[in-house]
Amino acid sequence: MKFKKHIILIFVISVGIILAACEQPAPVKPTPTPTPTPTPTPEKTWSEKFLTSLHYTREGKRTFYSKENGGFETLTGIPIEKLACLKCHGGKKADGTPITGEYNPDCYDCHIKIGDKPKNEVCLNCHGRQGTEIRLEATNPLFFDVHRKAKMNCVDCHKAEDVMGDGKYYKSMFDPGAIKTHCTDCHKPKSNMAHDIHLKTVECIACHARTGVACYNCHIDSLVEAKMKRPYGPIAGFKLLMNYEGKVVSASMMTVKYKDKTFYVVAPYYPHTTSKDVKCADCHMNPFVEEYEKTGKIKITWWNDTAKKLEWAKGVIPVVPNWSEAFQFDFLDYKGDVRNPVVPFDTNWTFMKSGADKTQMIYGKPLTEEQLKKLKGMGK
Question: Rounded mean pLDDT of 225-239?
């Protein structure tokens, strides 16, 4: 009997050993690989950001001039690098030191000491159109500006990223994000009839800028032959309106001639002639819309042969759908020595021809027919 019990016990133990040997081991879970903590990208210094800024690259000049964008190069056939445009400077550093020899933009163009607040005079060394606005303000109330009256500096509005860049590359100041400053950074629009109608579709500057200014008829021959910037002179008392980034904005034009060819570009423009004194009739009941409907044209400039001078349209001028054909310009030629000193409205200018051989609009769009109807009347 005991023998049978032993046999049974041995059998049970043997079966257990066999079953244990056949049993699959439980899978071993792999030790998870820890997710590496990304190394934060260090913030670029201002000196590093400056190297991609428009003040350093001068890329806005290249963008508008290049033949790839239908610019002035299509007239000259000369690369911009050979025109010295990219090396244009104000003649002296912020501390008054004359710039001599090979020029490259750097911090001391604007700063006497790194971190100081640049004065307006430093900005105006290069930004000549704004300088023209200031000079003309003395004799023309259209050039009044509320910010200048308040003794504000350029950098009170245009903060560091506007001037020294944000580390990104932009083709011009009209690329989205290139200029961060906006009126509503300081001004919170109050509800009134004009704001309620226009705020979503019209930029503040389209109404509140009293006038634009343009240096008319740049003589590229003088630039090529004598490295001198020679326009006929500044013209003002007008403001163009166009669409840009989903809103109506103020705009201006630049006109040039080279040899027997003529050219103009229309682009957004932000005058520094800001005023609260604006009226609906400044834009609406627009006589240029009526002129366009009757003739299919809008006369922008014309040569007065009796007075031997250029005259131009005043008021708010809409950039109409077929602007390239509708806008009428008279172009001039300079008959004096291209090395003569540059004098605005010099009597050496004479009539050249009517009409442009080529036009350009790479930022913004013309107004629509529906928008023209609103300008013609007082409709919303």
Answer: 94
Please tell me the distance from the alpha carbon of residue 248 to that of residue 227, in angstroms, as a whole number.
37
Higher local confidence (pLDDT), 345 or 11: 345
Return the structure tokens found at 219: 């003589």
Residue 84: pLDDT band (50, 70, 90) is confident
> Alpha-carbon torsion 282, 364, 53, 55, what sign?
negative
Interatomic CA distance for residues 183 and 271, integer angstroms: 13
* Single pTM value for the model: 0.86
pLDDT interval class at 15 (50, 70, 90):
very low
CA–CA distance, 51 with 44 (Å, rounded to integer): 11
